[in-house]
Amino acid sequence: MSRSIRLTALLGFLLLVLGVGLVLARNHQFEAGSRALKVEDYSTALRRLKPLASIGDSRAQYVLGEMYALGLGVPEDDSKAIYWFRRAAIGSNGEADPAAAAELALAKNYAQGIGVKVDADQSLKWFHRAADGGSKEAAAELDKSHSR
Description:
By secondary structure, the protein is an all-alpha fold. It has helices spanning about 5-40, 40-55, 60-70, 80-90, 100-110, 120-130, 135-145. The model has no long low-confidence stretch (mean pLDDT about 85).
């Protein structure tokens, strides 16, 4: 095997190892942030998740959005929550506003008391935001609640 082929193979192997290492480090950072959030260590969660969110990790962006929406370790701030939800765009399903899916999930959480206390006003607020963002499911939910 020629020297240039061996060097190319070695370089490829090193890049592969580096890539795997970076993915493992990223996953470790996210898991550490998630564990901190579960035990209500919000400062650690924020410190672990914000750098990931800033470099484009959609899971971290979504969680940061929830932290701002619910005021978990940060001042409650709808505009920052929506900013992170838009960046995450998890499950946007072609809605006009990519934050609509996250807003809908938050509305359901408030309606059903999942992770938060049941709060009809907050639920209604987030259903409206989701519907305004193009969520057909949120619009249908609002129509259903008005027809009762």
